[in-house]
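re: ur question from yesterday

yeah so i grabbed the chain u mentioned. its 294 aa long if i counted rite. heres the sequnce exactly as i have it in my notes:
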Amino acid sequence: MSTFHTLTRHVLVLAGAIIVAATVTPQQAVYATTVTSAQRPVTPDGPGSASGAPHLPKGFADTFTSRYVDIGELRLHAVIGGKGPPLLLVHGWPQTWYQWRLVMPALARDFTVIAVDQRGIGLSDKPESGYDAGSEANDMVALMDALGYKRFAMVGFDTGMPIAYALAADHPERLERLVVGEAIVTGVTPSPPLLVPGPLNKRLWHLAFNRLGPEVNEALVRGREEIFFGAEYANSAATPLRDEVVQYYIDRIASSPDALRGSFGSYRAIDASIAQNQQRKLKRLTLPVLAIGG
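ran it thru and got these structure tokens back, copy pasting raw so excuse formatting
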């Protein structure tokens, strides 16, 4: 079976499991941008890491380990394991690498799996800027360079989708094939209208809210994370999540002002990403792409 067919087979399984797989986001204590390198742990641990995350598939720690990877101006966290050609998994909002945990063991039979925390998320660094699609795509290229992979396959869902598209457009020589889903590409996909039916508004209103400045959305959400993120999971999750799972997400995001700020980063950079994508769409992608929607 070809590598693309193997990846496609696994990703169709992934698509069916994605909502279940996203039920926990174990973000360990996040690191403020003011923390010095001497104070930062060398090895990932705690609930944000592969060694400390709860409810992992049996034998997960035998295959996967957490690593911090320096990519120049910041440090990313990734969970890595398996054998075969490299496959980069980029999560959505407000998840971390843990979104992929249930499908990672199956993928690891055919691929070396790299499940990364985006900048601003999970155990990755949380700088003040650099959340536009192009910059985050550059993060992924630098990550794979640091790991020694020049060409790789990539899966990006939700907020991981525009990152994946930007990487495919800006660095076509790096990708073998691409799987994307559960999002629009701003500047390429027509934007949803401002006024939509009530049930749909419950699922989409966060797109505009998340773009606001910290004096509004962070000020309103801080201390009320259970209201905001609880409503998001209640209205947006196709499969209802257990109360303790939702609370776990909330506790991790509420653990630091930087964690909350980082969660809004890619939304606040949408204007920059739109401008970039209006140039990217002038040239078609030429690699194999599987897009999943619904």
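noticed a couple things. The CA atoms of residues 92 and 158 lie 5 Å apart. also The chain has one domain: 3-285.
anyway ttyl
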